Amino acid sequence: xxxxxxxxxxAADDVxxxxxxxxxxxxxxxxxxxxxxTSSTSYVSSLTTSGATPAVTLTSRGSYAWVSIGVTCASxxxxxxxxxxxxxxxxxxxxxxxDAWAVRISATNAGIGLGGFRTIRMPITPGTNTYTxxxxxxxxxxxxxxxxxxxxxxxxx
Length: 157
Prior knowledge:
Blueprint: H1 12-24, E1 27-32, E2 36-38, E3 55-60, E4 64-75, E5 81-91, E6 103-107, E7 114-123, E8 127-137, E9 145-155
């Protein structure tokens, strides 16, 4: 099956705008600067002093979502600490935050801000799903991690 996307009556710019609009309807993003901390070794969506937790709700027909997580964080002291930021899915899909797709950052000096970014392809059940950012600290290292900026982008066709 072939489709004509451009021709004498259809400009390439019109086709590009149509595709951009169609794809934008399938994606959403949330960016917050939570400036909160946690010493939890299990994933939590709430930080000690945070306002909003980044979350995106989309309705999809496909069986996969592409999820991008970006995070900036700092350690509470000068020893090596492991910061983990992951995403959980609720709704028609139930998936807990997991280290397998987490952004992992270690800060070696107190207060130094480090950032990380990761994009993953996650299996989902078609329907309405909410993607929520969650954080934790490395259980073996302990300590408190401060998360200063979080970005979540989801594309779920």
